[in-house]
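debug: dumping io for the single-chain case to check the tokenizer round-trip. Nothing else runs in this session.
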Amino acid sequence: MTVLRRTAHAEWIKLWSVRSTWLAVAAAAVFAVGLCLTGTVSTVRSWDAMPPADRAAFDAVGAAFGGLTFAQLAIGVLGVLAVTSEHASGTIVPTLAATPRRGVALLAKLLVTGGVALVLGEALAFGTFLLGQVVLDRHDLGVRLGDPGVLRAVSGAGLYLFVVAMVGFGLGALLRQHAAAIATLFAVVFLAYGAARALEGWSYVPSRLLLSNAGDVVGQVHATAAKPRLPSLRMAYADLALHLTLALGLGGWRAHRD
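debug: decoded output
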């Protein structure tokens, strides 16, 4: 435990000593806050002209999370660069010289990056939720954390951002190159959506397994029974666990293989 604690402390210093960490955090915050304000203000202005069906389906929680669609990429890149930066710069050599056990070195990096990603994800989710409700309350459209399903949805959105970061971390550990890992992460989060939609004429299974669709479900209050391409809430959490396990498992396999 002493070795792991010391290694984690070193990883904490390394994570915050590089400019990319601060840029990724800043980009995630700008996207989350900026698009939250844009989306909720637009909703308030167009509410009176909105069709009754759209009003009935309106989700005040999901409306505040419009910016998380882009913030998730910044957080995912943070996870990627936490691993690949050392391989690109060559500092992985002194890291392994100080901690020869690759498993301990990777675990320490995982704990530090995962802790930062979890706190950042939840902070963005709760922050944008509260900001969005301030805007929506002007038209009596806001909700409270104590309302049914709201706390679960807000914390679920933060959990989703954490999973995206850890998927990026796992891909970085597996591929060890900035471009390859980020491109693969982009494909998993965004491009897979189009491929799954193209297959919906045959089956909804691919869409129900998508990471992005799971994020949509856990970050909303309204039930998805009328949306067959989306997973149930229980399956959405299972999807998050599956992506987390696969990404980190592949990253760990590559670390132990070398």
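debug: round-trip ok. The mean pLDDT is 88.
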